[in-house]
Design a protein that fits this description.
This protein is of the alpha+beta class and about 350 residues long. The chain contains 15 helices and 9 strands. Strands 4-5-3-6 form a 4-stranded antiparallel β-sheet, sandwiched between helices. It has a 3-stranded antiparallel β-sheet with strand order 7-8-9.
């Protein structure tokens, strides 16, 4: 597609509406919409004449579930990125991903990932007749900061993107803070799509060459289920080799092979297959500690009138929805239930 076909007034306007959700009170959003039509036409002109440059990234740290550096673009650029993702990246990349690549896509996400994992565990249990089968959990070391720009661009250039689209893709990948030649900003929607696609070769290796039926990937967290431990050891070797040679990536220390009866840590939960085939879900110990700490903080902030009832309700409701799917004690569930 040409840039003129992607960045139409209508497409940019719809992208603006998506980007402003929940942020109507922000100063940069208000300033953008005061002269909305003019700002949209300015974006169209800058892009179609190829004078467009990304704004300065705002950097800040988050500490849950672990320390991460978030790099966020100004509102105008987030609108541009949203538009390009929705009308170029998504249509072309989504159809090339395997079904069980489950992060950051409509109709998928954490609940979908857990349902697929449980389906695979039940199928393997019926096949084996017991809970004495195995999983391989692979995790990439510092995934987003380690994505190689040159390799990513070569992979994308093999697809049916036009020269116009490649120009924008190069801009999104290479115009970064400190002019680094590795890594993608965690705050960009485009980074999510690039990260989903970057490991597509690993997905194909596992599903097509190794013929693993029960495999799921949530961004860089990969779970393989199989009845033979030796087979999974061979899979691990081949995955490590392809990551290192083809993608300039390494598996981290969390990569492991284990028995499903001891539980699989995946997406904040521990999934355990019992002798009778029943799957129970527990909170990870680290999640419990973190949640209790947050609850105490929220209560203190409310007491000091720093946050209002709506904020407390929303936060506790989020915790409750996370806990209610598990086998945790009734006492703990009642503690996080958002009763005001």
């Amino acid at each position: 597609m040409k840039l003129e076909e992607i960045f139409t007034f209508e497409n940019i306007y719809l992208s603006y509406k998506h980007c402003r959700k929940g942020k109507q009170h922000k100063g940069e959003v208000i300033r953008f919409e005061i002269n909305l039509a003019m700002n949209i036409y300015k974006i169209i002109e800058e892009i179609t004449t190829r004078k467009y440059k990304l704004g300065k990234y705002k950097q800040f740290l988050i500490y849950e579930p672990k320390e991460r550096l978030i790099e966020a673009l100004p509102f105008k650029d987030r609108v541009v990125v949203r538009c390009f993702c929705d009308y170029s990246l998504k249509p072309k990349l989504e159809k090339r991903l395997i079904y069980d690549n489950v992060a950051c896509q409509k109709g998928k996400g954490i609940n979908f990932a857990i349902q697929r994992l449980h389906l695979f565990l039940k199928k393997e249990y019926r096949k084996k007749g017991s809970n004495q089968f195995y999983f391989l959990k692979c995790d990439i070391k510092k995934y987003f900061p380690s994505i190689n720009h040159t390799i990513l661009l070569k992979l994308l250039e093999k697809l049916d993107f036009s020269l116009d689209e490649i120009w924008m893709i190069q801009k999104l990948i290479q115009e970064q803070p400190n002019n680094v030649n590795k890594g993608l900003p965690l705050g960009n929607q485009s980074s999510q799509w690039f990260a989903l696609f970057y490991l597509n070769g690993i997905d194909r290796l596992i599903k097509e060459r190794l013929q693993v039926k029960h495999y799921i990937r949530y961004m860089d967290d990969m779970i393989l289920i199989h009845c033979e431990k030796a087979f999974l050891k061979d899979c691990k070797t081949k995955i490590e080799e392809m990551c290192r040679k083809n993608l300039d990536l390494n598996l981290n220390e969390k990569t492991q092979i284990g028995c499903v009866q001891n539980g699989i840590d995946f997406l904040g939960y521990r999934h355990i297959v019992k002798e009778n085939g029943k799957i129970i879900v527990k909170l990870r110990q680290s999640s419990k500690k973190r949640m209790k700490k947050h609850l105490k903080t929220i209560d203190k902030l409310y007491e000091k009138k720093i946050v209002d009832e709506k904020y407390v309700y929303e936060r506790k409701n989020a915790f409750y929805n996370h806990v209610k799917k598990t086998q945790e004690s009734k006492k703990f569930i009642e503690k996080v239930h958002p009763k005001m």
